[in-house]
């Protein structure tokens, strides 16, 4: 009996972490939005069974391990593919990473030690999600996306995914409070009922958009393997030819209706550009394959590649180039370029500040890109404004909001260039797409997603998709879009403050009810 009690809480937390992971696409398939609610409730119940902070941290480790086993099981594969680490080293490092995948839970344990109120606890957890650094932010509220577009996530453009994280945490904490106190928190259940009611589809009749501008795009998915890609980037002539031949064929094949914009994925072009030179002189000849594609199709070209820094020299490799997105006019000149600003730790750089340059001579399988500093705004020949984010940048709503808010003219759509080839046919490409969809909902703009190995698609502001190109397909996708005028969403303007204002309203309502009960109790006492 004592043995069972000793291992009950750790087992419950391991299961809770697995349920959290089931809220996202996994090797089991589709996400289950209810699973993280149940998981977070079980996790909090287990924490309440222990008084020792040390034991509660141990339970958090089990919660993280469960999340890793069902959600981030693909990390060892990536360590092998990207870092050249094989069994058992990659598996051991994967287990080590499992303890820092959701670091906010450790801070939450400390918070829960001092705060018991469900609203404050739920708010605190969401703030931890927002401000505790994470490389792959998979938050409590994200699984609600699986309901869209069947159910309109009405709070997404108001308060973003943070509101749904709050809702998930609040429901879980309310259930735990009900279980522990045996008292039904009617106000809390009422608030949850109102929020759920506001999501009923009949409340939001479909409205036809006006002043639409057509945009015909072609998304190229070449499915180029890592060996060939790296070999071409190192300058091997046959590999370069093979890569560029694939892009040429997929960009020009079978065009029935003229395309306005052809889009290639992240780091598609293997050779180094010098954008400052090309932008300064529009008469300079672009690389032959780019000229030939533009001449044959009459389309603009938007693609990922590498751009040299101004300070780059022949004997310098550390931060000598940018991971970039280039925009070429259908008149065969470079219009503009965006340099990736949010680099991936341990993939595109190191997080050790002044020691990075020294360590770059020791740890050599990292790209060490320079960091961009400009939120570039692009414009098509038909005067449609757009922005571009590269790879994991799309996972950070505050970064995307900053980019949109720093545009002179409001962007009407966004392009996300990605290369998920390092992850193989695992859950990661599906999870990456799943989390990316939130930006379309939060900022009310179409998100065009171009990838090397999949998944390539267009995501609309209601969470629906165009036809998609799946993992491993080598082909192209033609999509005819109708781009609507766009205004800033509340979430774009106020960010995390939008969600906090809703939580504040709930707290004020609760305070009003408690004050009323307090004065009623006084009146009863006086009458007696």
TrEMBL record:
UniProt-recorded name of the protein:
Apolipoprotein N-acyltransferase
Q: Which UniProt keywords apply?
A: Acyltransferase, Cell membrane, Membrane, Transferase, Transmembrane, Transmembrane helix
| Main localization (coarse) | membrane
Write down the species: Bacteriovorax antarcticus
HAMAP family, alphabetized: Lnt
Q: What NCBIfam families does UniProt report for this protein, alphabetically?
A: lnt
- Transmembrane spans: 20-45, 57-76, 82-102, 114-133, 153-175, 187-204, 490-513
Could you say which protein family the record assigns here? Answer: Belongs to the CN hydrolase family. Apolipoprotein N-acyltransferase subfamily.
